[in-house]
Amino acid sequence: MTLYRAKLFAGLLLGAFFLAGCTGTQQAILDQGIEAARQAKDAEAETLKATVCAMSIGAYHRVNTDLEQRALDVLCGGQWERPVTADDLRALRALGDLSGGS
């Protein structure tokens, strides 16, 4: 187990321990906070995706490799000449990492 996973597991275990002692009101407040955080992250993801898809045609051709262009075509709804491959999925994941995806 990596150090990161160990810390994550310890944090989750500690969080579960504290949540077990919460009153109904405290639990409702925590649930509202969690839902607000989810909504904020979802809005961030939509914005990041829209930003990538708003790239100009010139930048699309100057900056991206062929593989990145195919991945952008899938993400942004472009035309396809062939089926999606594992390389395409890896490129999409890399683009997500570059754009700050979690």
Summarize the structure.
This protein has helices at residues 3-20, 24-53, 57-63, 66-76, 86-98. With 102 residues, the chain is an all-alpha fold. 3% of the residues are buried.
Your description of this structure?
The chain is about 75% helix and about 0% strand. The protein has helices at about 5-20, 25-55, 55-65, 65-75, 85-100. It contains 5 helices and no strands. The protein is mainly alpha-helical and about 100 residues long. The chain is elongated and about 55 Å long. The model has no long low-confidence stretch (mean pLDDT about 80). Helix 4 (about 65-75) packs across helix 5 (about 85-100).
Question: What's the topology here?
Answer:
Elements: H1 3-20, H2 24-53, H3 57-63, H4 66-76, H5 86-98
List its traits.
elongated; 102 residues; mainly alpha; 5 helices
Residues in helix, %: over 70%
- Rounded to the nearest angstrom, the radius of gyration is 20 Å
Structural class: mainly alpha
- What's the helix count? 5
Main sheet characteristics:
none
Poorly predicted segments: none
Shape: elongated
